[in-house]
Amino acid sequence: MSGKPVRPPRERLSSSERRAVILAASTQVIAAQGYDKASMRDIAKAANVTTPVLYDHFSSKTDIYLEVVQHHASNLIASWSETKEAGSAEEFFVQATTTFFTWIKENELSWRILFLDQPRAPEAIEINRQVRRLADEAMAAMITRLPPLDLPESLDIEVATRAISAQVTGAGNALATWWWENRHIPVKTVVELNHGLVWSGLERLIK
User: Fold this and answer.
1) pLDDT (tens digit, 0 to 9) for every residue of the chain, 207 residues total?
2) Between 17 and which of 13, 37, 125, 138 could a Cys-Cys bridge form, CB atoms 3.0 to 4.6 Å apart?
3) Contact 172, 79 (CB under 8 A)
4) Other CB atoms within 10 Å distance of the CB of residue 47
5) Measuring CA to CA, how many Å separate 96 from each of 7, 36, 54, 105?
6) Is-above-0.85 flag for pTM?
């Protein structure tokens, strides 16, 4: 017998555990490179698996992207749904936007994948659009928790709510994009900026 120490065998991960490792690595790679530039080889390397093993779990980069964005979108929407009722509509708005910007700060990679990355591949564009629609629907649900809005009579309430949600999320993401380059600024300050930019317009619609 040799005097060399015997290494314990490497622990084998279950299929679900390996899949979770791959998805975590995919988040890192796609957030850093964007969907278009990320490759299956890059993801396999980051997950410490061979490319054939990667294909055992996912048939394509699109399949990985779909699962990654669905996971992070669900996480964001769940955080919004936890916003509690407040004493006034303005307080509720501040709480909701605080939740959003806090989520961004705590989930920078998620936000980068969902909102900052702009894939050009057709299959990824549609997935990205689906995520944005989900975000708009979640914001629309938040807006319905505000007092009744004074809207043009010719405008259907559901259409108007979706239009307002698109404007609110659009403004929030525009500010978040700027914040991405100025991350030293605290969440509270960003929320105050968003309040000044968005609330004054929304407040005028509340009866």
Assistant:
1) 344 444 444 467 888 899 999 999 999 999 999 999 999 999 999 999 999 999 999 999 999 999 999 999 999 888 887 777 777 889 888 988 999 899 999 999 999 999 889 999 998 999 988 888 888 888 888 888 888 888 788 888 888 888 888 888 889 889 999 998 998 999 999 999 999 999 988 888 886
2) 13
3) no
4) 22
5) 52, 32, 38, 15
6) no
Number of other residues whose CB lies within 10 A of the CB of residue 147: 11
Q: Per the structure block, which two tokens stand in for 166?
A: 């698109």
Using CA atoms, how far residue 204 sits from 30, 166, 207, in Å, is: 40, 17, 8
- For 87, what's the count of Cα atoms within 13 Å in the CB-facing half-sphere? 0
Contact call for residues 39 and 124 (beta carbons, < 8 A): no
The pair of structure tokens assigned to 121 is 């591949």
Q: Which two tokens stand for residue 8?
A: 């314990």
Tokens 């055992």 locate to 56
Q: Retrieve residue 194's tokens.
A: 């968003």
How is 8-68 classified by DSSP, letter by letter?
Answer: PPPPPPPHHHHHHHHHHHHHHHHHHH-TTT--HHHHHHHHTS-HHHHHHH-SSHHHHHHHH
Buried b / exposed e over 66-76, threshold 16 CB at 10 Å, is bbbbeebbeeb
Please name the residue that has the structure tokens 């299956």: 40
